[in-house]
Every structure is written in structure tokens, then in C-alpha cells.
Specification:
The chain is mainly alpha-helical. It has 21 helices and no strands.
């Protein structure tokens, strides 16, 4: 076993058992410590570590994190929560909340939706008398499933689309994945609404202050610009245009109004979720060292030749995401693939995304929601509690998606079962 593999296993094991560790130890602490150990021991050089970081993804995340935080600082998140609680019935509020943030995830990425939705989830739980954990878990599930539909729905889809191997990414993703997305989202909303416990939240005081110090139009303009730039980029890709731009750059341009015109820009910047950004940087370093060591290549052996088969991809994506989290899993998988076919890439996108609905560490958006909620003083969602509510969703939704992709592939190729 290589040292980088041992460190990776230690990191993800500590994250899995964090509920039994001291409360001051956060998920990003563990991941950052792993990256530091790998660099300090010379397992990965500083230059290789920097090269391992996907700066396009980091720029995109920084930008959408900025937009999400500005929505909260300007009181827009509070208005959304106030509108949704008007339904009065906690179960209906939960379903409406999940549908809305599944759509937000598809447009602005699951991580942005997680940031925007976390304070709203806590406000809805407080105002409806429902358990905070139910709304937080519902947010994790909704942004994961909703993000599966588009190439900009989550970082792993972004990596697949950025590979240049998916023709007309927006059209291709929607064509292959919209049906299982709708089925899985509806079933998940029904499951969680039935399990909802209406009670007085156990958590301490949460950061629910309605702040309106800034100006609202810059962040609304930022969202509009982001949607337009992402749509234009998708159209250019669909038409085979030679002109294009990285989505990280598009997001950075979109968030400029927040930092140029918003009166709360300094507070937005200071209160940005920096720990989660550090988590992502460290994660890229840890997985980069693992890939550079050749350990995975040795473990795969001759099976690497079968990585372009959808069923093999489904198995590796689902179980590998539980060990490495889905973003680094996809990053490594794309670098190891012997060839690229659309059905296999859609299987990689769909299953690696839905694999996030198993454990907390399975998806970075889960980490974002629960770390942000923890910083706001919410009731802790433990590893065990999360798994009990989410594991059935992960298994069923993954099965539905695998079946649909195989069926569609067979239909398009003229195969018969």
C-alpha cells in the first residue's frame, strides 16, 4: 500500500467517524491535514499539488459562493423562506422547498444551491416547527438529484463537460438524465415528507438575523448574468462554435456586480464559506497524490480496459464515491478512461452524483450544507442519522438511473434485451 493511499483511507475514515470525535474537529480540518501531511513528507511536491487543483472549478465555486452569500446578506433568502412558509403545512413546505432547490442546483450548481438553501432550510424548520435535520437532509438530497440534469449542475458534471468529449453538453445531459431526475426527486420528496417529525428544534440560536444592509439588485443581476453566460456557452457548444469560455470565468464575470456595487460586499467576502473552499483545494491535493502514486492504476489492473463499459462505470462510480467523494472520483476516472462514449459518460455523471445520497462525505454539497449549518448553530446531523434517512434514496435512485441509461442506450443503438 502506498503512503498516499494510506493517507487517503485515513482521511475518509476520520471524516466518516467524526460524530465520535471532538466537536471542534471539522471535516475541512481532516482533509487539510491530509494534504499537509502529503506535502510535508514529500509524497507530492508543491508544484504537483498546485497542478492537481482544478482552478476552473475553484473559480466557479468561489464565484457562486459569493452570489449565494450575497443573497443571504441582503435578506433575499429570508424573503424566500417567508414566501415558502406561507404554505403553513410543514410537509407541503418541505416538498416545495425540495423542488425549488433542485431547480436552483440545475442552474447554479448544487454547491451554490446548498449555500443559498441552508439558511432557508433552518428558517423554514424554525417557522414550521419541524426538526431542523429533516430540512437540512432534504436540501442535501434535492440539490444532489436536481444537479444531475445539467452539465453545470455540480462540479463532477462540470469536469465531464469540460473534457470536450460530450457534444452539446446541455442538450446531451438533459436528454439522458431528465427522466430519472424527475422520478427520483418526486420519490425522495414523498419519502422525506412522510418521515418528517414536527417538533421544537433542538439546536441553539441560529444566525437568522434578517440583514438588509446591502443593495439587492447587484446580486439579482449577478444571477441573471450567470444564467445568460451559461446558456450562451451551452448554445455555442451545441452549434459547434470555436468560440467558448471556461465556466469558471463566466461565473467570475457574473459575480462582479456583487463586489462592485453591493453595499454589503465586504461582509459577503469576509463571511464567505472559506473552510469549504479550503476543503476543495485540499481534496484535489489528496486525490492528486493518490493518482500520481499509481496505486489506483495497480489496483484496477486489467479491469481498467473495461472502464468504458456503463455497468462497470456504474459500479465504480457508486462505490468509489463512498471512498473518495464523487468530485475527486470523477476527476480520477476521466484521467484513467481508455476511451470516451456518451452513454458511459452519462452513467458516470448520473451514478457518481446520486452516490452522494449515501454518506455525508459522498458529496461535497453535503459537506457544505452541514458545515454551514454547524457554523449557524444548528442541530448537528450525525453520520448515522444522515445515512438512515438518505441511504434508501441513494440505492433506489441509483437503480432507477442505471436502468434508464441502459434502456436509452439500447434504444438508440437498436439493441433488444
Amino acid at each position: 500500500m502506498s503512503f498516499s493511499l494510506a493517507v487517503s483511507i485515513a482521511v475518509f475514515t476520520l471524516i466518516a467517524i467524526r460524530e465520535w470525535l471532538p466537536s471542534f474537529l471539522k471535516i475541512w480540518h481532516v482533509m487539510t491535514a491530509g494534504a499537509f501531511v502529503l506535502i510535508a513528507t514529500g509524497t507530492i511536491t508543491p508544484k504537483t499539488a498546485l497542478d492537481a487543483i482544478d482552478w476552473n472549478v475553484m473559480l466557479y465555486l468561489f464565484s457562486v459562493f459569493s452570489i449565494g452569500r450575497a443573497l443571504y446578506e441582503n435578506g433575499i433568502s429570508h424573503r424566500i423562506a417567508g414566501w415558502m412558509v406561507g404554505w403553513r403545512t410543514p410537509g407541503v413546505s418541505l416538498v416545495a422547498f425540495m423542488m425549488l432547490f433542485a431547480l436552483v442546483a440545475a442552474i447554479l450548481t448544487n454547491d451554490a444551491a446548498a449555500i443559498i438553501g441552508t439558511p432557508i432550510a433552518l428558517m423554514l424548520a424554525h417557522q414550521t416547527g419541524a426538526d431542523q435535520r429533516t430540512f437540512l437532509i432534504a436540501l442535501c438530497v434535492a440539490v444532489t438529484i436536481g444537479s444531475m440534469t445539467t452539465p453545470i449542475g455540480n462540479p463532477q458534471n462540470l469536469l465531464i463537460a469540460a473534457s470536450g468529449e460530450v457534444p452539446a453538453p446541455m442538450v446531451t445531459f438533459v436528454h439522458w438524465l431528465i427522466v430519472p431526475t424527475l422520478i427520483c426527486l418526486g420519490g425522495s420528496a414523498l419519502w422525506l415528507s412522510k418521515r418528517m417529525v414536527v417538533t421544537t428544534p433542538e439546536g441553539g440560536s441560529t444566525d437568522m438575523t434578517d440583514t438588509t444592509e446591502g443593495t439587492q439588485w447587484p446580486v439579482l443581476l449577478a444571477i441573471a448574468v450567470l444564467v445568460v453566460l451559461v446558456t450562451v456557452e451551452s448554445i455555442l457548444a451545441a452549434t459547434g462554435s470555436d468560440f467558448g469560455y471556461p465556466l469558471g470565468v463566466a461565473a467570475a464575470i457574473a459575480c462582479l456586480p456583487v463586489y462592485l456595487f453591493d453595499g454589503a460586499r465586504m461582509r459577503t467576502f469576509v463571511r464567505l464559506d472559506w473552510p469549504t473552499l479550503v476543503f476543495f483545494v485540499s481534496m484535489f491535493i489528496v486525490t492528486g497524490a493518490l493518482l500520481d502514486s499509481g496505486s489506483l492504476q495497480s489496483i484496477l489492473g486489467e479491469e481498467r480496459e473495461h472502464m468504458n463499459e456503463p455497468l462497470v462505470t456504474a459500479g465504480i462510480s457508486f462505490f468509489g464515491s463512498q471512498i473518495f467523494s464523487n468530485v475527486p472520483l470523477v476527476d480520477m476516472y476521466l484521467k484513467l478512461l481508455p476511451s470516451f462514449e456518451v452513454p458511459n459518460l452519462m452513467m458516470l455523471a448520473g451514478v457518481s452524483t446520486l452516490a452522494g445520497n449515501v454518506f455525508i462525505i459522498s458529496a461535497a454539497s453535503n459537506v457544505i450544507v452541514l458545515q454551514m449549518a454547524d457554523r449557524m448553530g444548528a442541530t448537528e446531523v450525525t453520520f448515522t442519522q444522515f445515512m438512515k434517512d438518505v441511504l434508501p434514496i441513494g440505492i433506489v435512485s441509483t437503480g432507477v438511473t442505471i436502468g434508464w441509461i441502459l434502456l436509452l442506450e439500447a434504444h438508440l443503438s437498436g439493441k433488444t434485451f
